[in-house]
Amino acid sequence: MTAFSILDLCPVVEGGTVPEALDATRQMARQAEASGFTRFWLAEHHGMTGIASAATSLVISEAARATKTIRVGSGGIMLPNHSPLVIAEQFGTLEALYPGRIDLGLGRAPGTDMNTARALRRNLEAGAETFPNDIVELQTLMSEPQEGQRLIANPGAGANVPIYILGSSTYSAHLAAMLGLPYAFASHFAPDMLFEALHIYRSNFRPSNQLDKPYVIVGVMAALADTDEEADYHFTSALQSFVALRRNARGKTPRPVESMDGLWTEMEKMSIEHTFQFAIVGGPEKAKAKMERFVADTKADEVIISVPVHSVEARLKSVAMFGEMRGALKQAA
C-alpha cells in the first residue's frame, strides 16, 4: 500500500508572522502524525519572505519535538550550500535527540536566488560539481568510524541517518540509482521528466547497504476540502504564488481569491496549469480518483503531499482528509 507523507514549506502568509508560521508547522506535524502519515519533511529555502524554514535543522527539531512517532526530516537540505561535516553534525544531533525518527533528504539546487546562494557557499560551480562526492563523504561521516579515519563527526559518527536523493531531472535519477538510495522526485513543481526519471532510476538501481531495491517517493501539490469549489478556492493561493514567482516578485503566501481572472495572463495560466498537472485538488471523490490515477501511473512507494494554502485551518483539514483518503484506498485495495 502506498504511503502518504507531508512536505511542509513553513509558509509565512499574508497577514502572518514567522512565529505564527513556525507554530503552524508544529500543528501540521501533529496532524500528520495523528492521520497516520509516514514522514513529515521540511525544505531548505533562503532569502524568501514567504518561507520560514531557512534554518532547516532547527525547524525539523521543533517538528520532531511536537510529535512522538512520525519520521521527521529534510526534503531537502541543499548539500552544496554546506560542508558535509556540518550536516553530519546537525543530523547526528537530531538523531541523538529523536532516535530512529530522522531522515536526510538531499538536493543540489541552491534553494534561493543567486546572490543569496553566493553568500551561502561562495563557489556555485564547485558546489554542484562535487555533489556526488559530498554525499559519499557525508555517508562516511555518519557511519561507524574506520580505523585510521582522521575526520570524525561528533555527533554524527555512527548515526546512520537514512539518506534520500531529491531531484527534478534525470541527473538525480542516475545518481540515486548508482548510490542505491531512495529517490524523491519533485513532480509537484517539475512534472515533465517524472516518468523518464523513474524509469532510469528503477532500471539502473544498484543495491546498497541502505537499500536492497528501488524506493520511489513522488511529490504532489494538493488542497482537499468538503467540495470541489472550496478546494479550488483555497488552491488559488498556490496559483498566485507561482504567478509571482514567474514575475520574480516573491512574497508571502497570498490570501485565496474567488477567481484568477485578471490576475494572470493566458500564457501564465497555461504554464502554471501545466506545472500543476498532477495536483490533487478537489472534494473527496474528485481528489480520490485523481490520487488513484497518479499512484497507478507512477507505481510510487510513497506520495509526499504539499498543501500550499493560506489558512492554517484549511491546511490541517486537508491533511486530516488525506489521512481518511488513504484509509479508503487501503480498504479498497
From TrEMBL:
InterPro entries reported for this sequence: Bact_Lucif_Oxidored (IPR050766), CmoO-like (IPR019949), Luciferase-like_dom (IPR011251), Luciferase-like_sf (IPR036661)
Annotated family: To bacterial alkanal monooxygenase alpha and beta chains.
Record keywords, A-Z: Monooxygenase, Oxidoreductase
Domain of life, source organism: Bacteria
One Gene Ontology MF term: monooxygenase activity
Cellular component GO terms held in the UniProt record: cytosol
Name of this protein: Luciferase-like monooxygenase
Residue ranges of every copy of the Luciferase-like domain listed in the record: 15-296
NCBIfam families linked: oxido_grp_1 (TIGR03558)
Species name: Martelella endophytica
This protein's record includes keyword Oxidoreductase: yes
PANTHER family, per the entry: LUCIFERASE-LIKE MONOOXYGENASE
